[in-house]
Here is the input.
Amino acid sequence: MKAVRLLEYGGQLVFNDVPTPTIAPDEILVKIKSTAVNHLDLVEASGAARQILPINLPWIPGHEFSGVVEQVGSDVAAFAPGDAVFGTTSGMGAYAEYLAVKAAVIARKPTNLSFEEAASVPVASQTAWQGIFTHGHLEKGQTILIHGGAGAVGAYAVQLASHAGATVIATASGDDEAYLNFIGANRVIDYRKVQFEKVLREKVDVVFDLVGGDTQKRSFLVLKEGGHLVAATQPVSPEETARHRVSGAMMRLAPSGDVLFRVARLLEEGTIRPDVANVYALQDAAQAWKDIAGNLPGVHGMTPSGPGAASRRSHGKIVLRVVWREHEIRSRAYELYLARGAQPGRELEDWLQAERELTAEATGG
Ligand SMILES: NC(=O)c1ccc[n+]([C@@H]2O[C@H](COP(=O)([O-])OP(=O)(O)OC[C@H]3O[C@@H](n4cnc5c(N)ncnc54)[C@H](OP(=O)(O)O)[C@@H]3O)[C@@H](O)[C@H]2O)c1
Here is the structure.
């Protein structure tokens, strides 16, 4: 199969042939349709955090995907070949044509979502779910402050908290106010113009911090006693939590097929919605990384204003779609035609038929 790989920390991404994975009894082989880019991919690739986020080189990036089940392990009863699925990865990365993944961390793809939209969902939505409910213990009638509300994780947090009956306050750029109100925020504070702790009159029950740094430090000032500060980007000071009589923890996404199943139901009902900022071909992953690196100074050797860096991103995730280019379809069609067994006198027609099938598959989403 073809895959995108990193051969050395900080190196270029290469797109070439690697062995197709085999599966364990509790795993599924998924033929990937789309995957999505996360900040974490770039941080892992840079080597900057190799002590806590080590990778085995050569490394296939990618923490989430959508696709179709190709094969199931002998212990897997919940899925069958042909099922459309989505989920987070459980070992190898998803920037590839095939993925071996534990059945326990995937779910059926919501029927109303394209494969591209579905690939954008698993990491951001589960992080938001676990941040506000599992760690933040958010309940109906409470107030939550979400820092970075217009980002990929933040947008799910806003929608899920609003659906749960909470009052939702989000910090974001002023440009994002209308978007955030549309998806369920009751109030938006422009972090570029004002300091949230100076304009919030009432304290909040939960802070979900997707920004860190000074934003996290100032969050203690707006939390009710007994409230929860959940951070997704950096550890929370135990001294500060004790001093302010609140609980505080840095969360780490724990992929769960059960949470993803509940998210999928909400997506199918139309209660929450996904957002895709941009779609690239899988083999153009390096360009997609340049776009996201615009928001991550210094990561993977890129500068925010470097060539190709987006000046203002649209909302949502950057998705990578598995596409075969014309010459690849032609050579794969030839392999398929040979594998099926050429019928004498029909060689050209059989080859063209294989090519038509693969073209339809490649363009059909
Ligand atoms: N712990 C985990 O398991 C876990 C899982 C997933 C993600 N994360 C982390 O969570 C963070 C958010 O991820 P994401 O995918 O949602 O990122 P994202 O899509 O890039 O969103 C980040 C958002 O934060 C906003 N922002 C930047 N500075 C801000 C500030 N001072 N105050 C308020 N908003 C600010 C940005 O707005 P502008 O662009 O307008 O500045 C942007 O909308 C990342 O650091 C990611 O690595 C952690």
Remarks:
- The two ends are 19 Å apart (CA to CA).
